[in-house]
Structures are given as C-alpha cells and as structure tokens.
Amino acid sequence: MSLLQLEGTPKTPKVEFIDAPMSLALSGRSIPENSIEFYKPLMDWVDAHLSDSSSNPIEVSIRLEYFNTSSSKCLMDFLKRIEKSPVNATILWYYEEEDEDMLEAGEDYDAIIDIPFRLIATSA
Amino acid sequence: MSSVVPSDSTNLPVNQSFAADSTAMSSCELRWTGPVHDSSSRFILDWMENRLDAVQASKLQKKRIVHVAIELLQNLHHHSASPKEKIVFSIHETNSNRWTVRSQNPVKPEAQKPLEDRWTQLKSLNLEALRAQRMKQISKHERSLHGGGGIGLNEILRKSDGSAEMNFSKSQSDVVVTFIAELPLRS
B87 in a domain, yes or no? Predict the structure, then answer.
C-alpha cells in the first residue's frame, strides 16, 4: 500500500492519499506562503498512482475552509492531472451551506474540469 | 519594529483620501508595522478570527474578511519592496459595523504603472465579469513566482463586493501603494 498522509496545519490542508483502495482527500486550509512547494509531492503522488486504467472508480474529496489564490492554481493543476489520468474519478466538493463563495469556487472548477463534480453542502 | 495596537487603545480616523466612507470615524482594531513573515501573518490571522468571533461577524463575512487579509498579507510578504519597515497592515472598525482592512507597502517605481493599469481594468468589471476573468486566469498554465498568477487583486475586489481601492503616494524617495477594502461584518 502506498500512502501520502500529512497532518493539517493552520496554513496547509490535511492530506490523505491512499492507493488501496484508492482515495484522495484534502481538508482544512490551504494558504501556504509557497503553494507550489507544498503541492509538488501531491502532484508527484498523483502522477505515480493514477496511471492504471483498470483501477476502480475513485472519489476525490475536497473539503476546504479557505484557499489562497496560489492554492487555487495548484488545485487546478491537481484536478487537471486527475482529468488526464485514465482513472474514472468523481470530485466531491464540500462547502458549508452558508458559504456561497466556496460553492462558486466548486462551480468554477466544475465548469473547467471534465470530471463529474458533486457539490455537497455541509451544516458546519 | 512591529507593533500591534489592541482594539480599545486608540481611536484613529481612517486616512480620508482612501476611506470608502470618508465621513465615518473608525476605531483601530489592529495595526502592524514592519516586515511581514509567515509567523506574523499567522499571528494576525489568528487574532482576526478570534476578534471576528467576538464581534459576532456572520460566518460568510468572517471568511471574506479573512480571505482579503490573506491576500493582502501575502502581497506584503512576497511583493513589498524595501524598506520593509514602511509596511503597515491595519484594521479599523467603522461606526457602521464594517471593517476596513488596509495595507501599505513600498513598491519599485516601475511597478506603479502596470499595477495601476491592472487595477483600473479590474475595477471596470462587475462581479460576474470578475468571476469569469478569475476562471480564465486559474485555468491558464502561467503562474507567478509564488503561484498566484495575478489573481490576488481580483479576489480582493470580489470578496469586498467591489469596495476596495488602491492608491499610490510618495513617501520621501519611496513609492508606496495602499490598498483599502471595506467589508460589512454581517451579511
């Protein structure tokens, strides 16, 4: 089994990428000073593990409270890598029900990325 | 030297040339002067979140205010020219239940024109057009050194519902840029 697991910090999200069974989850805040540096190992992991077209469908869970503009570019790169991979993925985009900004952000990624998105309102 | 002024220790008018509501008096909630690093921005954001809870800001507005502060602080951290001692980040509460988030930093003189042009272009757009432009920018491959690709100004305008201003001034030999965003505490 291959695992990429990072605890969340006040500026970086909790990361849980597992390859058996495959699941990818990001949660918390993504406001690092250097997003490219933070996201590099996540991109590498995706490149290394999402190349098998025979793998089962996967769910990618994104539950972010805040993300800065540099993270928004990195999230786009992350989602594009999943889009280009042969894996059949669905994005679960969680947002707090009052948070129309995070809903809009999910809608925007959904409009750009050709992967099924489920926009899921949460109560807290 | 950096300093933080507690909310109840001073009453200062917001610089009237920048204030969205120049007639309103405001109390200084926080004032930071000097270089902004990772630890200082974390401290300021923690303070803001606690204070916004204490003044019972609505959840959405709290997130928008913090979001604007994140972009301004990261601008101060990465893009301020020297002398960094001239950096100022402050928060004022107006008597109309709004927070004014203000940042000020020296910039290289040659940065003024491109920044002014970019800001003027963004200010001419409505919120839907700003959203469309942001989508276009994040889907592009180009990015800035720290990854943003110039989306920060757009985000500041969107989160403040267009109530943000940018101005340049001269301080001795330095060119100083000031951003002011005014956001309501409650939706």
Answer: yes
Nearest CB to A99; choose among B63, B78, B149: B63
Query: Is A69 an 8 Å CB contact of chain B?
Result: yes
CB contact under 8 A, B135 and A10: no
Q: How far is A65 from chain B (nearest CA, A)?
A: 8
Query: Would you write out chain B's pLDDT as a tens digit for each of its 187 residues?
Result: 445 544 333 333 333 333 334 445 679 999 999 999 989 999 999 999 999 999 999 999 999 999 999 999 999 998 899 999 999 999 999 878 999 999 999 999 999 999 999 999 999 999 999 999 999 988 886 665 554 556 899 999 999 999 999 999 987 788 999 999 999 999 8
User: How far is residue A3's CA from residue A16's CA, in Å, rounded to a whole number?
Assistant: 7
ipTM score: 0.88
| Strand ranges across the sheet with A89-96 | A3-6, A14-19, A22-30, A58-67, A89-96, A117-122
How far is the alpha carbon of A44 from chain B, nearest alpha carbon, in Å? 17
Please report, for chain A, the start and end positions of each structural domain, with discontinuous segments joined by +.
Answer: 3-122
Provide the CATH topology of domain A3-122.
Transcription Regulator spoIIAA (3.30.750)
Which DSSP letter does residue A115 get?
S
A20 min Cα distance to partner chain B (Å): 31
> Is 0.80 topped by the overall pTM?
yes
Range of the domain at B38: 26-184
